[in-house]
UniProtKB/TrEMBL annotation:
Residues 911-938 have a biased composition (Basic and acidic residues). PANTHER family: BINDING PROTEIN TRANSPEPTIDASE, PUTATIVE-RELATED (PTHR32282), PENICILLIN-BINDING PROTEIN 2A (PTHR32282:SF32). InterPro entries: Beta-lactam/transpept-like, Glyco_trans_51, Glycosyltr_51/Transpeptidase, Ig-like_fold, Lysozyme-like_dom_sf, PBP_transglycosylase, PCN-bd_Tpept. Residues 421-665 form the Penicillin-binding protein transpeptidase domain. This is Penicillin-binding protein. The lineage of its organism: Bacteria, Bacillati, Bacillota, Bacilli, Bacillales. It comes from Mesobacillus persicus. Keywords: Carboxypeptidase, Cell membrane, Cell shape, Cell wall biogenesis/degradation, Glycosyltransferase, Hydrolase, Membrane, Multifunctional enzyme, Peptidoglycan synthesis, Protease, Transferase, Transmembrane, Transmembrane helix.
Length: 951
């Protein structure tokens, strides 16, 4: 031991002597100075290099973010919380309809309403340093830079939740130095403006989570919880929370549902493996215990997946309704947005480009901002009407239509069905209670109730002819109009136009009866009487928006031959009559509420004065007759309830369209039938006419509404007659006050009038007349016409009155006289039998069994015949029927008499004599008579036989 110590001492002494040696010290001093200088130089170089590197890096970073604006707190708040949230749609009375049609379904949720399991799972998985960092993690940034420089196959980008939020809401998803630099800058800035809870809440609402059980794309943890597990996000279990937290890394790779209507994928392993990864990170992060981890890993999460879910896409169940709500809501929001920018509604309506811009903004606004859109549609009535539409079996045949195949460019023939449009509107409010957009939405996405425009046929008559004419004082229900063949087409003066639907004519008729029977000629005449006062302005007041310039001037508009009108516009206008002459515009969007509960829009009822209450009531009363005794009587066979209905049928050109619109004190309902491309409807199908089929459909749909809400569609009240209406008698020949001649003819009638427009002049169109009758026709007698052939008590129409009606435009004036009732005694100015200017030729007569007969004289002016016996006139025959006379004994002849009183020469004479008695026959070989058998002598003189045969 001592020897070892002695050895260490010698070595230490030797070492010390080396350092104390002068040469050694001098050499060491030189070496130290060199080394120290070298170290100092190296430090200086490193500092200078670092400065240059840092400056270059800082300059490079600055160049990358130079175009990024410095955002304020308000700007960043707006951007971060401006995530798309799906809007909700509602039926009337806040009955939930579904989500607005969108590519991404999202629901906003507050952080306090999120399961703690889910919060812990997201933080542990996506950003374990979330609560420590200030927006970025340096090592994550270095990793991203290294991957970019080395062109690594794996590009992870930023990893913090703050950076992901910036990427999703402000920047793009590209992986580049420029975006990464901006992301860092904005993340740091965001962390200064917002606390961790606000950032986390925004992230949970922004992130996408694949698909739900309906196959819809979803975003936000609330939509994920509901769409995958059918539960609220606050009620998620640990395994459920872990599964959802794992989805954002690869939403469509890990989602359990396919895009095929949400069917479960065959391979669920990727999502299950990812869930276990999340649970592992939660355990290693200390947010769950080992027991919780083991239990969650062992849990079969697939049993919680929704197996079947109703589609959140309202198009599947309510296609027509969904699109209609969207369109109307977008229109409303477009005007609101434009108004916020200082524009007025007229500015947008006058500038298509400007309106298009705001419509696009409104559409995006509606789909992103989580509005609640409340409508007027009654869910139960709407669904019942769709059922009736699907099951009705009297539409008519499908008909072929040639189309171009968009894929091949080739012509092909398809079968086109009869379509329909129907709409039910509440009168006083304008609420659209229900509608039917069509039969087959998938075939052609046209809403036949609100969008498709068709000619409205005779349903136009009350709107454009009778109500305006009554309002302007030119017509009342008792006004008399001619229904005859006439030349009323200004473009074809020599052509008879218009025709009635059945090609028959009724002569002079009241306005009431003309509307009841839907005659076209009276409607055209009444319309032409007011055409210079531009009656189409009444239509515009009642919401018609598609009238062309020609519609304002063409007489054919009176019978519905216009450029087109929607079912909604047509039905909406009829509600004016039920509202006492006030038009209330129909609407479907009741209100729009933003996600903060603020009412963005709420509909206001704004009535427009169109007609007086008297005009409205008289029109309603006339249309009652259409249903009770006119073209819509078949309604009574089908409608299950009775109400005070007033309505009108209509037929489009060539039977392309069939209409029925009717109103009662509560609601107005109308139905249209026709093909999308113009084709005539089957006049008869399964034994039912086209008009009756449409009325049956109207009744079936209304019966469905009655089953849901009888008080709405079948009110106990009736239309109330306003003041200012009186009942007056009028002459059926002219519409004026009855004269004695009118009374004698039996043509006095009565109707209701606006007290302002009752007739004040006594009828002077009729006068007593003498006439002759031949072949059932009556002709005026001449002054020289023998009185024995003249009938008295007839009534004639004054020729000047006839001229005042239509003059030369009437094809056959005789058509003015109806072939019904008391009109049989009325003669028209042209009822004259022309005298041929010559004496009638003699007749030929014959006799058979003492009956003298002859044929009618060939001349057309013969009014009758005289019978002569032995030179004396014994009989007169009027007309040319029953030309037989039972004669006695004597000489007979017949003469013909013409209208001028000229008598023909006698016919051949026929003599009918009394027959002489026959002598008794003598026996050929008589036996000699006995004495007792001899004839006795007569007691008196000879007398003639008592045989009176032949008398």
């Amino acid at each position: 031991m001592n020897q070892e110590k002695q050895g260490w001492k010698k070595r230490l002494s030797s070492l010390l002597s080396f350092f104390t040696n002068k040469k050694t010290v001098k050499s060491a001093r030189i070496t130290y100075n060199v080394v120290w200088n070298l170290i100092l130089l190296l430090i200086i170089v490193m500092v200078i290099g670092a400065g240059f590197a840092g400056g270059a890096a800082a300059g490079y970073f600055a160049s990358l973010v130079k175009d990024e604006p410095i955002r304020s707190y308000e700007q960043m708040k707006k951007d971060i919380y401006n995530y798309e949230e799906t809007s909700d749609l509602y039926f009337d009375n806040d009955v939930y309809l579904g989500k607005l049609r969108t590519d991404l379904y999202r629901e906003e949720v507050k952080l306090e309403d999120v399961s703690q399991y889910l919060i812990d799972a997201v933080v542990a998985t996506e950003d374990e340093y979330f609560y420590e960092h200030e927006g970025v993690v340096p090592k994550a940034i270095l990793r991203a830079v290294f991957q970019e420089v080395t062109n690594s196959a794996t590009q992870t980008g930023g990893s913090t939740l703050t950076q992901q939020l910036i990427k999703n809401q402000i920047l793009t998803n590209e992986v580049s130095f420029e975006r990464k630099a901006k992301e860092i800058l904005l993340a740091l800035r965001l962390e200064k403006f917002f606390d961790k809870e606000e950032i986390l809440e925004a992230y949970l609402n922004v992130s996408t989570f694949g698909r739900n059980a309906s196959g819809n794309n979803i975003a936000g943890v609330q939509a994920a919880a509901e769409g995958i597990f059918g539960t609220d996000v606050k009620d998620l279990s640990l395994p459920q929370a872990a599964f959802i937290a794992g989805l954002p890394q690869s939403p469509f790779g890990y989602t359990p549902f396919s895009n095929d209507k949400g069917k479960l994928k065959e391979n669920l392993e990727p999502g299950l493996t990812r869930m276990k990864t999340v649970l592992s990170r939660m355990y290693t992060g200390g947010v769950i215990t080992k027991a919780e981890y083991d239990e969650a890993v062992a849990y079969d999460i697939t049993q919680d997946f929704l197996k079947e879910a109703e589609s959140g896409n309202t198009i599947d169940e309510y296609p027509y309704l969904t699109f209609e709500i969207e369109k109307r809501a977008v229109d409303i929001l477009a005007y609101i947005l434009a108004e916020q920018d200082g524009y007025e509604k007229n500015d947008l309506d006058a500038d298509e480009n400007l309106k298009g811009e705001y419509l696009a903004l409104a559409d995006r606004n509606l789909r992103q901002n989580g509005y609640s859109v409340h409508t007027t549609i009654n869910k139960d009535i709407y669904e019942k009407m769709q059922d009736v539409t699907a099951n009705f079996d009297l539409y008519g045949r499908d008909k072929p239509e040639e189309v171009i195949n968009p894929e091949t460019g080739e012509k092909e023939t398809i079968m086109e069905p009869v379509e329909l449009g129907a709409i039910l509107i509440e009168n006083q409010t304008g609420k659209i209670i229900s509608f039917v957009g069509g039969r087959y939405f998938d075939r052609e996405q046209i809403n036949h109730a609100t969008t498709a425009k068709r000619q409205n046929g005779s349903t136009m008559k009350p709107l454009l002819v009778y109500a305006p004419a009554m309002e302007l004082g030119t017509l009342q229900p008792g006004s008399v109009l001619p229904d005859v063949e006439a030349y009323l087409d200004p473009s074809a003066p020599g052509k008879v136009w218009p025709h009635n639907y059945d090609r028959s004519y009724s002569g002079l008729t009241s306005a009431r009866y003309a509307l009841t029977r839907s005659y076209n000629v009276p409607a055209i005449i009444a319309y032409k009487n007011i055409l210079n006062q531009r009656p189409t302005t009444f239509l515009e007041k009642m919401g018609f928006t598609s009238l062309s310039e020609s519609d304002h001037v063409n007489p054919s508009a009176a019978i519905g031959s216009i450029s087109g009108v929607t079912v909604e516009e047509n039905v909406n206008a009829y509600g004016t009559f039920a509202n006492g002459g006030k038009f209330v515009d129909a609407y479907m969007i009741d209100k729009i509420v933003d996600k903060e509960g603020n009412i963005v829009f709420e509909h206001k009822v704004e009535p427009v004065d169109v007609f007086s209450p008297q005009t409205a009531y008289l029109t309603v009363d006339m249309m009652r007759d259409v249903i009770n005794r006119g073209t819509a009587t078949s309604l009574h066979n089908r409608l299950k309830f009775s109400s005070d209905w007033a309505g009108k049928t209509g037929t489009g050109h060539n039977y392309y369209d069939s209409w029925f619109v009717a109103t009662n004190p509560n609601v107005t309902f109308g139905v249209w039938n026709g093909y999308d491309t113009q084709k005539p409807l089957d006049r008869n199908y399964k034994g039912v006419s086209y008009g009756a089929r449409n009325i049956y459909l109207w009744a079936d749909l209304m019966n469905a509404a009655y089953d849901v809400d009888p008080k709405l569609v079948d009110p106990e009240k009736r239309f109330e007659m306003p003041g200012g209406i009186v009942r007056r008698s009028y002459c059926g020949a002219s519409g004026l006050l009855p004269s004695q001649a009118c009374s004698d003819a039996g043509l006095v009638q009565a109707d209701y009038y606006n007290a302002k427009f009752v007739p004040s002049k006594v009828d002077d169109s009729l006068a007593s007349s003498r006439y002759v009758e031949i072949g059932g026709k009556k002709y005026f007698a001449l002054d020289s016409t023998p009185s024995e052939f003249i009938e008295s008590g007839g009534v004639t129409i004054d020729p000047s009155y006839m001229e005042s009606i239509l003059g030369h435009k009437i094809k056959n004036p005789a058509q003015l006289i109806p072939s019904r009732g008391a009109w049989s005694n009325i003669l028209v100015a042209d009822s004259k039998l022309a005298e041929n200017g010559r004496t009638p030729a003699a007749l030929g007569i014959s006799v058979s069994d003492k009956k003298i007969s002859w044929k009618a004289h060939p001349d057309k002016d013969i009014i009758g015949y005289r019978i002569y016996q032995d030179g004396k006139k014994v009989g007169t025959f009027k007309g040319d029927s029953n030309l037989t006379y039972n004669a006695g004994y004597g000489s007979f002849y017949v003469t013909a008499i013409d209208i001028a009183g000229n008598e023909s020469a006698p016919s051949n004479v026929i003599k009918i004599e009394e027959e002489k008695p026959k002598e008794p026959e003598k026996p050929k070989n008589p036996d000699k008579p006995k004495e007792d058998d001899k004839p006795k002598e007569p007691e008196t003189d000879e007398t003639s036989s008592n045989d009176n045969s032949g008398n």
